[in-house]
Structure formats: structure tokens, C-alpha cells
Amino acid sequence: LDKCFEQGILSERETGLPLAEMGSIRFLETMIKKICLKEGFGAVLAEGALRASKICGRESQAITNDSLIQTGRAVPYSPKVFIQSSLIYATEPRPLITELHEVYESLFKWAMWYISKGEKSYVSTEVLRKMGEKFWGSEKAVDFSTYEGKALAAVKIQNREFVKESLIMCDFAWPVFDDASTGDCVGDPTLDSQLLSTVTGWEIDEKGLDHIGERIFTLNRAILMREGRKGREDDYLPEFQFVEREEPIGDRFGLHNPELLLPGKGDEIISRKGKAVDREKFEQLKDEYYQLRGWDTPTGLLKKDTLKRLDLEDVIEPLKGKVI
Prior knowledge:
By secondary structure, the protein is an all-alpha fold. The chain has helices at 2-6, 12-15, 25-37, 41-45, 49-56, 58-65, 85-91, 97-115, 125-136, 150-167, 191-200, 206-226, 252-256, 279-293, 304-309, 316-319, and strands spanning 261-263, 269-271. The chain has a two-stranded antiparallel sheet with strand order 1-2. The mean pLDDT is 94.
């Protein structure tokens, strides 16, 4: 809305909104009231950003297509910065914010360590790599000079966060990535399953909890496919994610680390500022991701064997031609 006003696409007269006062109480009250009552231009805004931009015309659509994902959301913790986020955004129409928080939390603590020279955080590069090994499957998961290790990290993040949502565990507290009381300052990925066992009496370990998370995530995928998702064809990123340019700061990581510094190989520190997702490597990343998930690599469709392994055999028939 602000960009449309700045570029002269929309005016205060057309919208009935005090656009020059955007961000003020008066503006917010006026806009919210119009949206709630679907009054005037409020009826257009009530359709959501993507539909509203279509109603307003091509110039408006160009703005949303250049800044929002397929479902009209902004892109915090962007794939341009965090490679593993690319798979989360591509395979889910509405990624859980908890998934994106898991991507950035430990990396934010590392950034604070690096920028403050250890004064504001103890999550050093060495600690971060140990965390990557324990929680995301490999040290390469936190090496942002390569796409290696990011597919496995994405799978682990999705499984953990889907089961965490089911357990109604606090996003601010779980998982426990780091712990200053331990010798290496690295947290314990088994605490989640230990908590569940303690509360319920069930015998379950980290691997068992991951299996439950995989089952929930796969069922979610099955539901999306039943409702029309086409598999690999729909697992894509908006085109602007492949364009090298500086993006507006849209999350806490960028606010405190404007150069978007991240660890690379060895002692290398790299900046993701102005970078883009590599299209070819992203497609290769999807191949690896589908293989890890046990899905069909060329199509991204679910496999019968995988559904049977996850005790989801009953969803095969409803999916009809969408299972291989």
C-alpha cells in the first residue's frame, strides 16, 4: 500500500484513506474500520494483498509479485540469506513461523557473538558447528558458502517443528539449542522426547519423536495434494528470490546484522547481502530433499512405500493418481 502511494498508483481520494499519515493511529483506525465493514476501498483490501493488487491493476501486481510469496506473505528469514529456508518456503504454502525461528535463532546468537566479539553471546563458530551437527545433521548445515547439508537441515527442522506444534511447546524455549551450563555450550536435542516421556510415560527417544514429526508433515503434504497441490511443480520460490539485489530489512536478524554476515568454510565469514538463490543449486537441493523424504524425485509426489512406512496407508486411496 505504501509503495502504491509513493509511486502514484493509489491516492487518498481513491482509497478514502489518509495515506500520507500511514502508520499513525488515525490511518490504522480508518483502514481497519473500512476493512472490517468492507466499506469502499476496504472491501478491496479485505481480499488480501494478492487479490487486492490484481483488482488495482498491473502496476500494483508488479509490486506484490516482486515482494511477496505465492500466498501473499512477506519473506522474513529469507531464502536469499538462509539457504535451508528455501525448501521451507517452497514446500509449504504457509510455513510455520516456528520453523523460520529455528532457522534463525542459533544463527542470530552466532551473529551477536561475531559482531560483539564475544561480549553478547557465547555461540562461537565452533559452538555453532557442534549445534549444526547435533540438531541439523551436519556441520555443513551452518556453512553458508555451500548448499550442502541444507536439505537434511530443512527436513529435520520441519519434522521437529511440526511435532513441537502438536505438543504445544513454547517456541521461545524449545528446542534447547545452547546451554551455558554445559562444557561445550551446546544444547540437547533429546530433551523434547525426554519431556514427552516424563509427562506421558511413553517410551520415546529423539529418533521416535522425529518419526512422529515426519508422519505429521507427510500427512500435511498429503492433505495439500488432495486439495490440489501438484508436487514439484508447486514447490517453487517467487522469481525475485533469484534476483541479486539488496532487500529491505524485514526481520530481527537483518536489523541487528545489516550486512547479513554468516559463517562460511573454516574461518571464512561471508555476507549474504544482495545475494540471490542459485536456481540450479536450488533444483538440486529439491532433488536431495525429496530423496530424504522418500518422495518421488522427478515429480515431488508421495510414494506408497513411504506412506506405508509412516502408517499412512489409508491416505493412498483418497489421493488416487497423486501417489507413486
